[in-house]
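Quick note —
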Amino acid sequence: MSRAELSTLAERSVEQARTLGADQSEAWIHESTQLSTTVRLGQVETLAEATSRALTLRVFVGQRVASASSSDLSEDTLDQLTRGAIARARLASEDPFAGLPDDSLPCPEAESLALYDPQLETIGAQEAIRQAGETERIGLALDPRVKNSSGASFRVSRGTVWGANSRGFRGWFRQSAASLSVHLLGQGENDAAQVSDFWYTAARAWNQMEPPEQVARVAVERVRRHLGARKIATQEVPVVFEPLMAAELLSDLFGAVCGETVYLKRSFLAESRGQRVASPQVTLVDDGVLPGRLGTRPFDREGVASRRTTVLADGVLKNFLCSSYSARKLGLPVTGNGAGNGEVPSNFYLRAGADKPEAIVGSVERGLYVTRLLGQGVNLLTGDYSRGAFGLWIERGEIVHPVHEVTISGNLREMLAGIEQVGTDLDLRDPFAAPTIKISALTMAGN
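Predicted structure written out below.
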């Protein structure tokens, strides 16, 4: 089936659903091609290339709803899919909040968002293997203490999304992305165990990717800093999160500001809209229209236009991120984060602050600089936070030695309030992004 045919198939599916008895409906078609490879110790471990396409249909009969999807886009299959979805909807319970979005803001032009790079069409298997293999080779050659590898991976994806609904929405866009990563292991002369770390680059365009040399060099530097790790006694200290770990903290926090979590009363922030919940240093933004970023899109999975939403402004909780359903439940506006079922982020980031990263470290008399987080110890209902960590120990503003086998714990509300400094080093390579941050005090459990 050609792209021209796919571009009209979503509209035809919506019209067929109306003909067969649906009061409202939406149809989405996703087509994607992915090429990925992993090289370990110079050998290709995996190499895969696949193209997929699927249609997802959601229908409403009154305020009863049902969904169905298929990768078989033949006329007979889609006819059965539509009839089946409508039949299931008629058996469902009425939900007064069900329905298509009411929002009618115009969507930004996909071309203005720089979502697609045609150069990625030219990347084949040999180039993918070369990128991964060269990255690992360089990484293993830079330092004799870096002795092993868990592998280097390269991935490129290209795809098109088409959408239509019975309220007149019609939209489509192309997107692309590539990533290159390596995970290396090292061991010092006096170390009993190996240490490991990684680095990666990811972008929508080929010319935005870091070259293999840079990915390998940063990965080696990150491994080196863990050599000679020591244990530390249990204590309460200031904790600095490097940007990747601060971004991971944001990914834990994201669920607490999602409309679905809020209306289900599963968020510790559910009753806090309009209140100060964080340090004045903290401004959190979800921005779906940043050109060229991985979380950018012209519209969400419901056809709602992407936009910039300030979630926290100078520590005050301004907005929750809402799909059309949660927006109706909460009496709030949609934010362009709908996923068809719940919410997803676009580019969810902590705005950069005024402090250079080295100045943040220099402000710590005695504390921990977090470089790795382990486990999933976050309770969004209470805000309780506890995760395993690796890091670097700070004394009198200087990093003095690596630390391992510790657990950091606190409460997300108190952690937000305790953010004393925010760095200038915001890196928007991922949908979750943050600069270096310093939290005034967390419990660090060690020996």
